[in-house]
Amino acid sequence: MDSTAKDTQLAKTLTVGRAVSLALGIVVGAGLLVLPGLAYSKVGNSSIYAWVIDALMIIPLLVIFASLGSRYPNAGGVAGFVRLAFGPVIGAMTELMLMSAFFLGIPGIALTGAGYLAFLFHSSGWASSLFAIMLLVIAGILNYLGTQLSAIAQQVLSYSLVFILAAVAVIALTFDPVRDHGVASVATWKASIPALGMVFFAYTGWEMLSFMGEEFRNPKRDFPIAIVISYVLIVLIYLAVALAVQWTLQPYNPQTTQAPIAAVLAKVFGNKSADVVAIMGVLIILANLNGATWAASRLLFSSAREGFLPRFLASVDLNLQIPRRSVVTCILVFMAVVVMHQVGWISQHMMFALAGQNFFLIYVLSVLVYIRLTRRPLNTLFAFGVLVLCIIFITSFGRGLLYPLTVSLLGLVLGAIHKRNTMKNQSSSEPNR
After folding, report:
1. Which residues does 124 contact at the CB level (< 8 Å), separation at least 6?
2. pLDDT one-digit tens code per residue, 118-128
3. Which terms in the Gene Ontology molecular function aspect does this entry carry (predicted)?
């Protein structure tokens, strides 16, 4: 391979074990620290069924992701799939949608971790934003120093957290349940329906794994295996933690909605366990940030390689074969958004809300890609069924849809301009051949 080709090629370092750890760190994020309590408070002791139903609902989407990721591995992830199926203009639109989601959601995650650090050190004000920037810098350094180090750190963080969360759940479940607030009978599962939308967002994040498809050593075999293993582990963790919350806490206690895992540990070990929860929260966030930064930097790299972003970002380090410029750019943008939050230009709640809606629309685009690329009638029928479910879910967004629709329109315009300029440059160079 010559130096020019190597300059835009990523190192193939991902194995099943590393991919599973990335999925765990990305999916098991900040939501697990609050959602079990919020769902329990909303629908009572039937809330466990919301976790079960959503675990079943996500399966069709994961089947689609696993199929696309194994067949079309690329650093552009979902945007790469869309570009392949619908061309560069729709691909550019998807890239902008993903960037607008990453650039809001990842700083929001960092601010969540910063809140736990602020609790540990009894800080407030600008200290929280500085903590968020510190976490982002750590994630950036891990990614900048190479995928080997980043993957190892992710494995240590993710598997340690799985063990800790499982231990918390098992210990809590050995305690006597709160009177009249154990687990409702299966016949009451319909009572969990109001919590389905809330809980569903705990199951998002696997789409980020698609941005690492180009770095799998054997994507056709390993990508689906990583999805399956991580799905099983995550569902078991979620169900265990949700059961532990129901088993030990009252549904209408303020602590149940604000910090359910902290409340469970306090119930088991006493109030001094709050610092342990804070440290665990920071570790969960750091694992989340490491994987998310990996995915976001690959999106910028792929977009630049396609010519939509400046070619400056398409370069990779010749020794480690990682897109260091894209990593640094991502961290700088994330830090800028944290500063915007600090001065009051955007709230953390708004970051999550807008990013979440964009990510869900990315799911819809993935289903459309699957419909376009599949050649089997049964697969097409399956995908149309998934599409109908997604459209029903989208109706709950309301006016929040204005943001992703605006970003989509801007992406279409910029994509069309880029395509026109590319064609113009190609035609002008033809006489010189």
Report:
1. 118
2. 877 777 778 88
3. transmembrane transporter activity
Sequence-separated (6 or more) residues with CB below 8 Å from residue 122: none
Q: DSSP string of 77-110? A: THHHHHHHHH-HHHHHHHHHHHHHHHHHHHHHHH
With beta carbons less than 8 A apart as the criterion, state whether 313 and 301 touch: yes
Both structure tokens of 25: 């760190």
Q: Which two tokens stand for residue 417?
A: 């301009």
CA distance 314 to 65: 25
Pick the CATH number of 13-416 from 3.30.420.10, 1.20.1740.10, 3.30.70.1520, 2.102.10.10: 1.20.1740.10
Average pLDDT of the chain to the nearest whole number: 79
Q: Taking a C-beta distance cutoff of 8 angstroms, is the pair 146, 320 a contact?
A: yes
Structure confidence at residue 403 as a pLDDT band (50, 70, 90): confident
Cα separation of 405 and 11, whole Å? 35
Name the token pair of 423.
């064609």
Beta carbons within 8 Å of 406's beta carbon, 6+ residues apart: none
Which residue bears the tokens 């097409």? 380
CA-based nearest residue to 257, from 53, 108, 47, 107: 47
For residue 8, pLDDT beyond 60: no
pLDDT tens for 278-303 read 787 788 788 788 888 888 888 888 88
